[in-house]
Every structure is written in structure tokens, then in C-alpha cells.
From TrEMBL:
Zn(2+) binds at C221, C284, C285. The keyword Metal-binding applies. This is Homocysteine S-methyltransferase. PROSITE patterns: HCY (PS50970). It comes from Kitasatospora cinereorecta. One of its GO terms (biological process) is methylation. Keywords: Metal-binding, Methyltransferase, Transferase, Zinc. Residues 3-299 form the Hcy-binding domain. It comes from the Bacteria. Transmembrane segments: none annotated. Its cofactor is Zn(2+). Its EC number is 2.1.1.10. GO terms for molecular function: methyltransferase activity. Pfam families: S-methyl_trans.
Length: 302
């Protein structure tokens, strides 16, 4: 499926995203306690990534988000991978999702979204839940552009600019995607109506209004309760379709490196999201194939 087809598909009706890749890989028995997180398996177990993507496609997801969230030239270099190898691994993340789409027993077209996580994800210390890294916008743009180019070279249908905690980083990434020729969605990490760095979400969403590359704007990896209001805010901010894929409602303890609390993700929220303007709906961390299958049933019945 060519990248230019994604925006047209989005205009045709809501698309179901997958759930958390890391929790599915862990459910399959893989240890992700590593600074590269799920991207480690690009080096050591790519077949496991294919299997995880395929599981979500077969659960009803139409869009799989690649294992590149925490992947970077800097992170791979710390594991002894040179630039050429890092480029190959970034591209491989797209190829593996495409392979899963070809193998999946699923009806209808399937798409691949290349994950572009924030700079803070590469630090592997929970910084993506705070933002404000102390880098200039130019430095952030210089960080993002090379890996964006490597991902685009592999032919994804869309770039998933996700879990962005800060308006400044969003501006830097929007600069970095110019001229790449691939549509993007822009998704913020949020809490209580604000970005993780503390800016009002409506101001963050408004950044997408004049960015031709952006085909959807919204939130991910927030608690489901915050997603409800965020969808309405995103829809009002510039008239673009809304993307929403919250986590399970549990909270990540970056010090203890574990999830705490009780899950609150429910597929019955989806009808409200769709009514409020959401067109890309799914789950993030700790939302698995069973929840996506239920979500897909709601979307099909809407």
C-alpha cells in the first residue's frame, strides 16, 4: 500500500490502530529490560516483532506501529552498531511490520506506521513523560531528521510522531518532516489537559493546523480518562482528524521501571471518541490484542 493512500483511507472512515508492542513482546516471553526497549529485538529477534505485529493485525488492527519508538543512531551506537547498521535496523522496523501485514489472515488493506518517539525515549529514563530536555529546537531537529530519513527510505505508509511531551519538540519534528513526502500523525503525551511539559493541549494541537504533512493530531500514552477531553480539544483545534490511543490507565514508575495501579482502558469509550472526531483509535502501553479486538468490534459497529 503506497504512502499516499493513507490520507485517503483515513478520510474514508475510522481506522483501528494496534496496542502496545512492548507488552505483546513481553507476553511472548521476551525480556525488554534494556535501554533500546523493543528496538533491541530488531538486532536480536526480528521474527518476534513480526509475530507481535501479526497478532494485532489478526485481532482487528488496520495499522501497525513499528518497533522504532526508542531506536536511534545514538542508541544503536552504544550497542556497537555503526551508522550504516543503524540505518538498516531503522528500515528493518518498517519491513517487519510490512511482512506481518502480508502474512496476516485479515480482511481489507493494512497499513504500517513508522514510530518516531521523542528524544526523551532515547534517554531511557522516563524523560518522555517530562519533556524539557535542555536542548534547543535546532538540536532537536538535528536529532530527529536522520532517523526520519532512514524510516522514510523503507517506505512506511505514515509516520507516527508519538508521545511528544513538549510543544518545542513538536515544532522541531514538524520542521524535520518537511519535504519527506510521507504523511504524519502528531500525538502528544498528556495529563490533565496539558502536555507533559505543562503547555495547554489546545495550543499544542493548533501546531498541526498549518502543517500540510499532518493528517491527524491527538494524544497517546495518556490515561483513558484524559483521552476523552483531549479528543474534543484536538478536534476543535484545527479541523484535522484526531488520533487517540491511550495506555491501559496504569502508571509507569520510571524509578522502579514498572507499571503500577489498575487498568481503566475500556473499548466502550471508543464510540464517544468517534463521535467527537477521532479517526485513528487504538491503545498504547499495556493494551493488548484482546482489547484491540473488542475496540475493533465497536468501530465496525459504529
Amino acid at each position: 500500500m503506497a504512502a499516499v493512500d493513507f490520507a485517503a483511507a483515513l478520510a474514508g472512515g475510522p481506522l483501528v490502530l494496534d496496542g502496545g508492542l512492548s507488552n505483546q513482546l513481553e507476553a511472548e516471553g521476551h525480556d525488554l529490560s534494556d535501554a533500546l526497549w523493543s528496538a533491541r529485538l530488531l538486532m536480536e529477534g526480528p521474527e518476534a516483532i513480526v509475530e507481535a505485529h501479526r497478532t494485532y493485525y489478526e485481532a482487528g488492527a488496520r495499522v501497525a506501529i513499528t518497533a522504532s519508538y526508542q531506536a536511534s543512531f545514538e542508541g544503536f551506537a552504544l550497542r556497537g552498531a555503526g551508522r550504516a547498521t543503524a540505518e538498516r535496523l531503522l528500515g528493518l522496523s518498517v519491513e517487519l511490520a510490512r511482512q506481518a501485514a502480508e502474512e496476516a489472515e485479515a480482511a481489507g488493506p493494512l497499513w504500517v506506521a513508522a514510530s518516531v518517539g521523542p528524544y526523551g525515549a532515547v534517554l531511557a529514563d522516563g524523560s518522555e513523560y517530562r519533556g524539557r530536555y535542555g536542548l534547543s529546537m535546532a538540536e532537536l531537529e538535528a536529532f530527529h531528521r536522520p532517523r526520519l530519513e532512514a524510516l522514510v527510505a523503507a517506505g512506511p505508509d505514515v509516520l507516527a510522531i508519538e508521545t511528544i511531551p513538549d510543544v518545542d519538540e513538536a515544532l522541531a519534528v514538524l520542521r524535520a518532516v518537511r519535504g519527506l513526502g510521507v504523511p504524519v500523525w502528531l500525538s502528544f503525551s498528556a495529563a490533565g489537559g496539558r502536555t507533559r511539559a505543562g503547555q495547554p493541549l489546545d495550543e499544542a494541537f493548533a501546531l498541526a493546523a498549518d502543517a500540510d504533512e499532518v493528517v491527524a493530531v491527538g494524544v497517546n500514552c495518556c490515561v483513558p480518562g484524559d483521552a476523552d477531553a483531549a479528543v474534543r480539544s484536538a478536534a476543535a483545534a484545527g479541523g484535522k482528524p484526531v488520533v487517540v490511543y491511550p495506555n491501559s490507565g496504569e502508571r509507569w514508575d520510571a524509578v522502579a521501571r514498572r507499571w503500577v495501579g489498575e487498568p481503566t482502558f475500556r473499548a466502550d469509550r471508543v464510540a464517544g471518541w468517534l463521535a467527537d472526531g477521532a479517526r485513528l483509535v487504538g491503545g498504547c502501553c499495556r493494551v493488548g490484542p484482546a482489547a484491540i479486538a473488542e475496540l475493533a468490534r465497536v468501530v465496525r459497529g459504529s
